[in-house]
């Protein structure tokens, strides 16, 4: 087994739901601690890591807008939820001795740094994990789009999407037992087949920047480090060769 990582700098996208564990909402400290342990293992491989975390475990702007709330206002509330998740993950990582910085697209300097691209790059060069909070700072954009944007800005070699299953399927395998699993896909296949990986804006942004998307099961202990070594089960989304 090689300990040499495939990538030197990556962005890991986590949904807010990934932090819930078996709870119906909010944060599960055991789940956050386990994910932090996996991130710590990857940092020890020498990989520069940054994160974007969603806020759906606390507040989901789209569903609030569907129930009558102003969409922009709801999205701003969702962005604040991502800051709470980022601070929780920062705490878990630093308990493991991993130096971490949170940067928010919505300035709130009492609790975290404002997003400054050059500063974020410098943190990563020094071995710090940077957690990008507040989405893009604009309503109507998802945290998936924020992840693709930040990955492109940071010059990441891959965008990893940590999900509940071990790759991309033709349908939700938890609901459709005979759903087909893909090892490799192109950006256009994801868009044309309407596969629920990321929203279209995120996929298009990744495609424009030739940024591979790797989808894996974030709940499988050690899976993040395995993917970094090119091992384990995952789906890779790129341009056709």
Would you kindly provide a written description of the structure presented here, covering whatever features stand out?
37% of the residues lie in helices and 19% in strands. The strands form 2 sheets. Strands 4-3-5-2-1-6-10-11-9 form a 9-stranded mixed beta sheet, sandwiched between helices. The chain has a two-stranded antiparallel ribbon with strand order 7-8. The protein has 8 helices and 11 strands. It is globular and about 45 Å long. It is α/β, with parallel strands linked by helices and 241 residues long. It has one domain: 3-Layer(aba) Sandwich (Carbamate kinase), CATH 3.40.1160. The mean pLDDT is 94. α1 links the parallel β1 and β2.
| Residue runs with pLDDT of under 50 for 5 or more positions | none
CATH topology annotation:
Carbamate kinase
- The first-level CATH class is given as Alpha Beta
Topology order in helix (H) and strand (E) letters: EHEHHEEHEHEEEEHHEHE
Named at the architecture level, the CATH assignment is 3-Layer(aba) Sandwich
What sort of overall outline do the alpha carbons produce when their principal axes are compared?
A: globular
Q: How many distinct domains?
A: 1
Number of helices: 8
Strand adjacency order, main sheet: 4-3-5-2-1-6-10-11-9
Please give the largest β-sheet: 9 strands, mixed
Q: How much β-strand is present in the residues?
A: 15-25%
What is the CA–CA distance across the termini?
Answer: 27 Å
Helix content: 25-40%
Q: Using only CA atoms, what is the Rg?
A: 17 Å
């Amino acid at each position: 087994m090689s300990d040499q990582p495939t990538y030197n700098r990556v962005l890991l996208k986590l949904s807010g739901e990934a932090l819930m564990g078996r709870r119906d909402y909010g944060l599960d400290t055991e789940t956050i601690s386990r994910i932090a342990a996996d991130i710590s293992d990857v940092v020890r491989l020498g990989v520069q890591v940054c994160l974007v975390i969603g806020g759906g475990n606390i507040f989901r702007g789209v569903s609030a807008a569907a129930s009558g709330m102003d969409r922009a206002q709801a999205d701003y509330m969702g962005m604040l939820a991502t800051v709470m998740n980022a601070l929780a993950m920062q705490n878990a990582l630093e308990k493991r001795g991993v130096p971490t910085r949170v940067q928010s697209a919505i300035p709130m300097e009492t609790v975290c740094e404002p997003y400054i691209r050059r500063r974020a790059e410098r943190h990563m060069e020094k071995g710090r994990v940077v957690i990008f909070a507040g989405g893009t700072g604009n309503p109507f954009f998802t945290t998936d789009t924020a992840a693709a944007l930040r990955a492109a800005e940071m010059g990441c070699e891959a965008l990893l999407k940590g999900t509940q299953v071990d790759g991309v399927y033709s349908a939700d395998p938890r609901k459709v037992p005979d759903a087909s699993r893909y090892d490799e896909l192109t950006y256009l296949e994801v868009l044309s087949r309407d596969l629920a990986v990321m929203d279209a804006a995120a996929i298009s942004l990744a495609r424009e920047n030739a940024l591979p998307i790797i989808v894996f099961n974030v709940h499988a202990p050690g899976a993040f480090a395995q993917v970094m070594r090119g091992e384990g089960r995952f789906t890779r989304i790129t341009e056709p060769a």
